[in-house]
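Side project, low priority. Logging it here so it doesn't get lost.
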Amino acid sequence: MAAVNFLLRRSSPSMMKVAAQMLGTRGYAVSVGTDIIESALSVSLQKARSWDEGVSSKFSTTPLKDIFKGKKIVIFGLPGAYTGVCSAQHVPSYKNNIEKFKAKGVDSVICVAVNDPYVLNGWAEKLQAKDAIEFYGDFDGSFHKSMELGVDLSAALLGPRSHRWSAYVVDGKIKVFNLEKAPSEFEVSGGEVILGQI
């Protein structure tokens, strides 16, 4: 398992695919037409922030209806902050195209991961992406579990995480949905792909 973790951290595509295959695959409840708000009525996300901001906000969370209702949102999920493909490819594919998303009438581009909001905040700042993308934590994985997009990456010492995916959501309803075959892959969930689908 240590070898799997090393390979995942180094983001070698061929070895990450092997590791992902070791973890298995399953079906998903989310698809085009799914209402994200209705699918996860009791779920809230945690906006990326510093610890001090968390304390001053009394550790507030954001209900999904406040994120999606009446808005055009591009959202993408990824296995975790500070991991190889997520840092080097996935987030930059959205950050580098933010003006194109705005030109298509997208209200917000959101990144969500099974991380706490403080880790996501530090990662977003490191990537210099916080001004372009809204980062939200799914600290207990409940958002991804509700849509059956969770995956066990314990083989890489990551524990319960998210598959790699993207969606275009209008007023809470999924209009476009892309899911990678494995969390290590980056073929269909990038910013350039979904731009062409809006």
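Brief comment: The two ends are 40 Å apart (CA to CA).
Revisit when time allows.
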